[in-house]
Amino acid sequence: MLSARGLRKSFGDTEVLRGIDLTLHRGEVLVLIGPSGSGKTTVLRALNGLETPDAGTITVDGGPELDFAPAERPRPRAQKQQRLALRDRSAMVFQHHNLFPHLTVLQNVIEGPWRVQRQPRAEVVAEALALLDRVGLADKADARPHQLSGGQQQRVGIVRALALKPDLLLFDEPTSALDPELVGEVLLVIKELADEGWTMAVVTHELSFAREVADHVLFLDGGVVVEEGPPAEIFRAPRHERTQRFLTRIL
Ligand code: ADP
Hints:
Elements: E1 2-11, E2 14-24, E3 29-33, H1 40-47, E4 55-60, E5 66-67, H2 76-89, E6 90-93, H3 105-116, H4 121-134, H5 150-163, E7 168-172, H6 180-195, E8 199-203, H7 207-213, E9 216-221, E10 224-229, H8 231-236, H9 241-250
Helix pairs in contact: 3-4, 3-5, 4-5, 5-6
The structure holds adenosine-5'-diphosphate.
Subcellular location: Cell membrane
Protein name: Amino acid ABC transporter ATP-binding protein
InterPro entries: AAA+_ATPase (IPR003593), ABC_ATPase_HisP-typ (IPR030679), ABC_transporter-like_ATP-bd (IPR003439), ABC_transporter-like_CS (IPR017871), MetN_ABC_transporter-like (IPR050086), P-loop_NTPase (IPR027417)
C-alpha cells in the first residue's frame, strides 16, 4: 500500500536519511527500531508529509509516484500538494499527545474530522464516542486533557488519529513519554488495532512489544536500513554486528 524508495534528507550539513527503502503492505505492521538519532522519526514524518525529502519517491496505493527530486525543479505549490496527498492518507500519534488543553476530550477528537475534513458534526460525535468507548474512555468525553493520566491522554491521541479514518497509522514512540506503569495500557490498544488489521508503522524502543506486534522490522542506524526482516529473524538471529550491538545494549 505504500512504498518509499531512496529517501534522503539533510538538515543543514547533516544527512539524516541516506537512501531509505521501505514497503508497507495493507494490514501490515512495520516497526522501526534503532539508536536515537538514526532517522526513525524523520522517516515517519516523510511518510506523513510533515517533512519533504530531498530525494526519493513515495507511492501510496498504486497512486502517482511522488518524486522528491524530479529532473525538472518542482514548484513549491506542487510540493505542497504532494505533501498534502500524503497527509490525507495517514494519521500520526506523537510521543507527546499534543491535545488542545482548552478543549474537552470529545472536542479534541472531533476537531479534525469535523472542522478540517468537514464531516457532519452529529456523525463525527457519534463515531468519536464509540471510539472513546472502545479504548475505555467513554466516561472521559467531557474531561479536559489535564484531568487524565498520561496513558489516558495517549489513548485519546490514538482515538483522535482513528477518527480521521486514515489508511495508515503512524506511531512515533507513543509510549516513551509515559511513566512505566502506564505503558502497557497504550501498547495494548495499539496491539488491538494491529490485530484488527490496521496498516501501521511504529517507531518504538519497546522491543518485546515490537517482537509481538511486528510483521516486519527495520533496523536503522546512521540514516540507512542496516537490516530488515521478520521479527523472529531480527531479534533472534540478527546478522549484522550493528544490530547485534544495539539489541544487546537495549535488552
Ligand atoms: P530518531 O527518531 O531515530 O531518534 P530523528 O529522525 O529524530 O532520529 O533524527 C535524526 C537526526 O536528525 C538527529 O540527529 C536529529 O537531531 C536531526 N534532526 C531531526 N529533525 C531535525 C530538524 N528539524 N532540524 C535539524 N535537525 C533535525
